[in-house]
Design a protein that fits this description.
The chain is α+β, with helices and mostly antiparallel strands and about 525 residues long. It has 13 helices and 23 strands.
């Protein structure tokens, strides 16, 4: 994966392996208002302390207990060094917590007898194709959102950055090489969720956003939740986008050219929402499919969404059990209660939603700093507090680790005395890959530039060693970085480009187009 985008995405995906929420033995949860208010006050103080320590400009929080919204508020501001105060109605990107909405859509189709979780995908999406014919034939609808495809983690996700649409990304699965047997291992994916949404659209006659609006958001009163096409709106109560660079928080400009790339992954990570709206969503799950007497999803299918499907981490010695469900993570760690949760990171925003179904309590947190796991550790702290235990300083421990961490070098070691490249014009030409299609390499301002994808992303090729180059986005070199190796034939003419870390995507090979 490209350097910055890889770090941003893996900050999101790797959190799925933490599985560390609510680890404490269960005690009686606070039942009296006074006791609950003490928990909330202490949690707010701890949250604000760490918001400042981590350099998070602003965040929004909501807590639901006993089916009531018991806390809603904001801390900090929408923009670094300015903006307006964040509140419960501030709009944020919610990243991969969007996945649960797609699972809910499929559950609604199951309720309507339009499909079954056990149906083969090709029965509903005949064009669906995996590299292995047997896997294509046996791929069930429930496999689309259980994270056990057999593919490499995050396979094909770079397509969204380069502007490929959802249909193109689904079709690209046919060119993805597996790294494990089908259903044998956990590996986080986004593209299969696009296929699930496509199936819903075929049966409902509505596109993804229209279905969400009519069937979920309107019934729940989620009036500020949306699926935009061009990034966050510029309304009065909308957060700005921030990321970490060299250990510091940096705010991106409103015209940042990649503010909309995450929305190509709509069914897997492209929703915008608020803490107030997400509290309604949380109530739906806590109440197993209904809110205020309105049933949106049957109890049976809501329970299926939360049912473990793929082991992520199991340690019998300590009682750890963490499994991926249908867009949720089920966690149990030697305790008398279960936590169901998911998080999301969009490079520039971070989200966390978690609840304890047996106790009917949960929380939503949204922040405007991407690539930082603070919210996940805050959730642990809250769960300890709610269960009457003295919590550990989870955020403090994580912050200390973050400060000591050294930047990851995702490039191979460079020779002490690298060889210069050949004549630059010998590398110029057009190269083709079945997934990323045709890319062009041209002479530009005394160097080489590669143009890639429908978005026509321009990348400067920086010489590394002889026929090896580092491709960096011309507009935002911090975001994407690829390592390329040009390969020539016996006569010295370039025949292909090989891209490191894309080995499982049509081999990562781009062949010269004659």
């Amino acid at each position: 994966m490209p350097r910055r985008l890889s770090k941003s995405l893996t900050a999101l995906w790797s959190l799925l392996l933490l599985l560390a929420l609510c680890l404490s033995p269960a005690l009686a949860a606070p039942t009296q208002d006074a006791s609950l208010q003490k928990v909330l006050a202490r949690f707010e103080a701890y949250t604000e302390k760490n918001r400042q320590a981590f350099g998070v400009p602003g965040m929004s929080l909501a807590v639901v207990a006993g089916d009531k919204l018991v806390y809603l508020g904001g801390l900090g501001t929408t923009a670094l060094g300015g903006g307006r105060p964040v509140d419960g109605d501030t709009v944020f990107q919610i990243g991969s917590t969007s996945k649960a909405f797609t699972a809910a859509m499929v559950a609604m189709m199951a309720d309507g007898k339009k499909l079954s979780w056990e149906d083969r995908v090709i029965e509903h999406l005949p064009s669906f194709l995996m590299q292995d014919p047997w896997v294509t034939r046996e791929f069930l609808i429930k496999d689309l959102m259980a994270q056990h495809t057999g593919l490499a983690p995050h396979a094909g996700e770079l397509q969204a950055f380069f502007g490929f649409n959802r249909g193109q990304m689904i079709a690209s699965l046919a060119h993805m090489s597996p790294i494990s047997s089908f259903r044998s291992a956990f590996a986080y994916q986004n593209i299969p969720f696009l296929a699930a949404a496509e199936i819903v659209g075929r049966h409902s006659g509505m596109d993804y956003g229209e279905f969400l609006q009519k069937r979920i958001w309107q019934p729940l009163g989620m009036s500020r939740t949306s699926l935009p096409k061009s990034g966050l709106a510029t309304g009065d109560n909308v957060t700005r986008l921030h990321r970490r660079e060299n250990g510091k928080t940096v705010m991106l400009s409103r015209d940042w050219p990649y503010k909309d790339w995450i929305y190509e992954f709509g069914p897997a990570g492209g929703i915008n929402s608020t803490a107030r709206d997400m509290a309604q969503w949380l109530r739906l799950h806590i109440n197993r499919g209904q809110v205020d007497g309105k049933r949106l999803i049957s109890q049976k299918n809501m329970d299926f969404i939360h049912t473990p499907a793929t082991p992520v981490k199991v340690d019998l010695a300590t009682g750890v059990l963490g499994q991926y469900c249908q867009a949720w993570i089920y966690e149990r760690r030697g305790s008398a209660f279960t936590t169901i949760w998911h998080n999301g990171d969009t490079t520039v925003n971070h989200a966390m939603i978690a609840f304890m179904p047996g106790k009917k309590v949960g929380l939503v947190m949204l922040s405007n700093l991407g690539g930082v796991d603070m919210l996940d550790n805050l959730a642990r702290y809250f769960c300890d507090l709610y269960n009457g235990l003295e919590p550990k300083d989870y955020c403090g421990k994580y912050l200390a680790k973050l400060k000591k961490a050294k930047p990851e070098d995702e490039l191979p070691p460079r020779p002490k005395n690298p060889s210069p490249p050949r004549a630059l014009e010998s590398y110029a030409g057009r190269y083709y890959n079945p997934i990323y299609k045709t890319v062009s390499v041209n002479l530009k301002d005394g160097g080489l530039e590669m143009t890639m994808g429908p978005r026509r992303v321009r990348m400067k090729l920086v010489p590394w060693d002889r026929d090896q180059f580092v491709a960096q986005d011309v507009v935002d070199p911090e975001l994407v970085q690829l390592f390329l190796s040009f390969e020539s034939g016996p006569e010295g003419k370039m025949q292909r480009i090989r891209v490191m870390d894309l080995e499982h995507e049509a081999g990562g090979v781009f062949k010269m187009v004659e």
